[in-house]
Amino acid sequence: MKSLKITFGLICLGILASNIVTMSRWNEARGVYDDVCYLRQAHLFQRFGIGGFNTNAALDYDHYFRGKLQEIAYAEWQDPARWPCHTPMPGDKFVLQYPPGTGALLALFPAGHQVVPLYVSASLIVCALALIGIFAAPTLPLTAGAGVFGALAVYLMINPAKASYSIAPTMAVCAAAGFLTAWWLVRARQSLWPIMLVGLLLGVSVNFRLPNVLLAAGYFLFLGIPFVWSRKVITFAQGLGFGAAVLVGMTPTLVAQAVNAGSPLATTYGSADVVAPAFSLGVLGQYLHDMQFGLIVLAIGATAWLLLTGEGGVRQVALVAAGNLLVNLVFFLSHPVFTPYYVVPIAMLTLWSTSFAALMQPVEASEEAPLRRGAASVGALSR
To answer: What is this structure's pTM?
Structure first.
């Protein structure tokens, strides 16, 4: 089994090295509107520090963004009213629609060399957690499962993560949150700090993509519904701690919305993105023909398997994952816009959570649970 772990570890490191070589050749002006908009947010933070929360187009008096638009041959680069990713606001101003987190991370690196370090950093985190899973696996089947999933997770940092700069840090957060979710429910169910750390991470993820707030839905359901009938102090404390941590984590987004939209609860997104849910066969068809469909199937399968075979904390992880999947899939599959990365965060959070839950359960439980359930089924048939 040791040789298998080393083999899978080397495979993950090989994929990571290949990814880094590929990333090093990326062009920051590849013609995608989202890219230059995230870079504008980074530029504002580098110019003004905390004042970079203000994304008013009038602040482009150094012509940074106009230059970026010219680089990608955007025809209407001179007119802020026609700029991509910008939304009109009262007071005749135009502001960036995206939350500030991705731009803040890009701002940590020197201008012109920001995207590659962001992706490499996120990939290192994902690869590290994949290696932890592989070398922590207690049995041969779990080692093989952790190895295959780890290799897949590292590969996904290139495709589809390259589709949006916001996905790379989201993937790293999902990996860490999945590990902590499993640790909380399998190893430290009565502790407060693991669920608060999960809440903080998921709150931070909202600063990368606003829809990431839905990643917390399953946790609120898991903590809120039992409290209604049990009234246990520990359940209340964990729910309160989780909610407070989510709020703290997403504070930068609330600040940005207050500065740019006039209220922490007012969105900076335009009307095209704020639409009522409506299931569309066209959108559903696009998901069916996209790689995301495979990830959804894997996530649902892993969750269902733990619901059927898991016990104790392992089954609780599956319950959190099931609630999360339900809320997120209903939202995105009814959203009239398709992208190649919308459901990737929930799929990866689910897979990381269920994977680590399986790895953390006692070896005896992982070996005996299917046998006990099989015996129970035989007994039921014989009656």
So the answer is: 0.92
